[in-house]
Each structure stands twice: as structure tokens, then as C-alpha cells.
Amino acid sequence: MILLTGANGQLGTDFKKIFDKIGIKYIATDYTELDITNKLAIEKFVKGKEIEIIINCAAYNDVDKAEVEKDKAYTLNCYAPQNLAKIARQIDAVFLTYSTDFVFDGKKDIPYTEKDIPNPLSVYGMSKYDGEKAVLDTYEKSFVIRTSWVFGIGNNNFNTQVINWSKSKNELNIVDDQVSVPTYSYDLAQFSWELIKINKFGLYHISNNGIASKYDQAKYVLDKIGWKGKLGRAKTADFNLPAKRAKYSKLDSKKVEKIIGKNIPTWQNAIDRYLVELYNK
Fold first, then answer.
1. Catalytic residue positions?
2. DSSP characters for 37-82?
3. Lesser CB count within 10 Å: N end or C end of the chain?
4. 251-265 pLDDT, tens digit each
5. pLDDT of 155 above 90
6. Considering the entire predicted model, what is its pTM?
């Protein structure tokens, strides 16, 4: 049996889709069913359920708000994953949780590997990095997967923002000085599941292939939906955001591709499939 936390978000939604398709039994929970910040509540919940795998898709993802809600960010991104790792250790279950490209400072100009040393620029990034360390130090049967710019039909994301803006505006300005890669939550869930089956625990990067700025991503989406407006370039500094962003945070996913023996699709291919899914929803 699999315990899935944060099951109503983008990633959780796609895990459910994959598990339903292949006939895997799981218990899907969100914060209303299970408070992962409460270790005693988790212990009580898993008792007698024969949980073999715990997949944590819950997180605090508001990068700017985290600057003033540090306790909340740390509770969900660091302490809760550590609680789950402790419970997984108690019941001898495999544990998997997620981190982010925001753990890096963006000073490189080639993709970040798992061997690169993090240096977060924001409270959000630091809460995720401290969460990584807490989980890996707590339990040896853990996977920590870093990803970037996640989008899926389970929730709002940058793609849906761009589509919504396009409905009411004839002109948009999108930053071109944040560079990473958009990642489809379905591909992230699929490759995570392939990795779990191999049982080679540790730290991994899983993002779609290719590279893009926010401008590139927006342009691709707008071209696909046939928007006739004017798309301009902007800089991160123009928006005076509370949290600092790395200029470059592209993740290198070669480690996981080599272990699984399969290449992750490109972000363009991923957006194509996402748009089909979105409009067939």
C-alpha cells in the first residue's frame, strides 16, 4: 500500500492517475485527512495499514510569502518531511519527497548536478534545502527529488496564469532573465515511480529536458493557443519581488535517466501534452 500526501495538488493528481491506470493501491490524503506536521497524527494514521511506500507531494510553495511566513514554510518544507521520514523508518517503508531548483544561487551557467553545493537565495529555498538534509540524515531508504517550474492540471501554475492573462490583455511583459526548465507533473510522477521501483536511494534531479526562460515558456504557450497580442521582455528587477530568484537554475537529470535507462521528454513536448489534457478536462 502507498500513502500519498498532498494528493490534491498537481503532482499528487498525476500520481493518482498513474496508480489508477496500472492498478496500484494507494491512500490519497490532503491536509484535511492527515496533518503531516503532527508526528503523532501520522503514527496513528498509518497504524495497521501496511504502508510500504510514502510519497510526499505536500509543500509550501509561495516563494515570496515565505519571506514573511518563515515558520510556515519551514513547518511544511522541512519539519513535515522529516516527520514522514521518521514514520517511514519506524514502519520500514520507502520514503520519497520533493525539493527544488531554488536551492541554488544561479551563479553557474551550466546545468546543476546532484554534486553541486546548494546556496539558497530565499527563505523558501533554504526551507527546502534544510528539508533535504533532514530527510537524508533521518532515513537511509529515502529519495529526495529536486525539480523545477512544475505545471499540471491539478492546480494553477505559470502556464494557466499566462493563458488567463492572454484572455484579458493584448500586451504582456514576461521576464527573460530567469532561466531553468518547465516540468510537467505527469512526467515528474512517472519518472519518480520508475525510480522508486529501482530502490537506489538518495538525491536526484528530475526535470523535463531542454532549457527556457519564463519568456520562452510564455511565448511557447501563447503561440500554441494562437494569441495575437504583443509579448514583450521584462527583467526580474522590474517587479520588485520580496524573494530573490536565481538567474540560472537549470537542473541536470542525467543521473536519473542513466539509472532508469530512459530520457525525460522535452519541456515543449510536455507543454503540448499538458495543453491537450487541459482543454479536454
1. 124
2. T-HHHHHHHHTTS---EEEE------TTGGGT-HHHHHIIIIIHHH
3. C
4. 999 999 999 999 999
5. no
6. 0.95
